[in-house]
Amino acid sequence: MAYPFQLGFQDATSPIMEELLHFHDHTLMIVFLISSLVLYIISSMLTTKLTHTSTMDAQEVETIWTILPAIILILIALPSLRILYMMDEINNPSLTVKTMGHQWYWSYEYTDYEDLTFDSYMIPTSDLKPGELRLLEVDNRVVLPMEMTIRMLISSEDVLHSWAIPSLGLKTDAIPGRLNQTTLVASRPGLYYGQCSEICGSNHSFMPIVLELVPLKHFEEWSASML
Ligand SMILES: [Cu+2]
């Protein structure tokens, strides 16, 4: 989860999020280089008289400052497309979990099991135990096996919501009448927090998401205890 005054992203928990972090750093590097160049040019234009004939009118330099930005754009677009297609891929999921957004809680359905469904409400601040996180803890966590491909199906029962887990690089809109799909792979166990990321109403801030990623053996024990 995020810590106070955090500026960057949360640590990556899925391979996709690692890719996204790399891409973010790569793009930001280009932005910094362009910004410093522009800043340098602005300051030199303000402090000098540009009277050199070969910079006032020159085909060569115009060719360069047309082609160079095009190359830079390609250098951003290609890795971006690569990650886009990686995120779209679903290879043979081991488990499917359907989540529905409601005003204002999430409900989960493990469709591979006969009757494994539950609602997940936020724990009110007055009921929190010491060490629990305000506005983030829920009464029923989504327990999932780690290191496995899980297919998340996301939809909504009333208004637009968005099911988001930053450390897994997931954010999928929950749209009434439409079933969205995303892949979830966690490379390590732990608790992962997220919040509804679509302004959905007055209690929008009070429908958090908590994933509990555990080894497969523990997941089996949990699912058996839930049936
Ligand atoms: Cu919502």
The CATH topology of the largest domain: Immunoglobulin-like
CATH-level-4 superfamily name of the largest domain: Cupredoxins -  blue copper proteins
First-residue to last-residue Cα separation: 30 Å
Give helix % range: 25-40%
How would a textbook summarize the main sheet? Answer: 5 strands, mixed
Percent of residues in β-strands: 15-25%
**How does the helix and strand content classify structurally?**
alpha+beta
CATH class value of the largest domain? Mainly Beta
Overview of this protein structure:
With 227 residues, this protein is of the alpha+beta class. The chain has two domains: 13-86, Helix Hairpins (Orthogonal Bundle), CATH 1.10.287; 93-224, Immunoglobulin-like (Sandwich), CATH 2.60.40.420. It has four helices and ten strands; from the N terminus they run H-H-H-E-E-E-E-E-E-E-E-E-E-H. The chain has helices at 15-47, 53-56, 59-88, 216-226, and strands at residues 95-102, 105-110, 117-120, 142-145, 150-156, 161-165, 170-174, 180-184, 190-194, 209-214. A five-stranded mixed β-sheet has the order 3-2-1-5-8, with no helix packed on it. The longest helix has 33 residues, at 15-47. The two termini are 30 Å apart. Bound molecules: copper (II) ion. Copper (II) ion binds at residues 101, 161, 196, 198, 200, 204, 207.
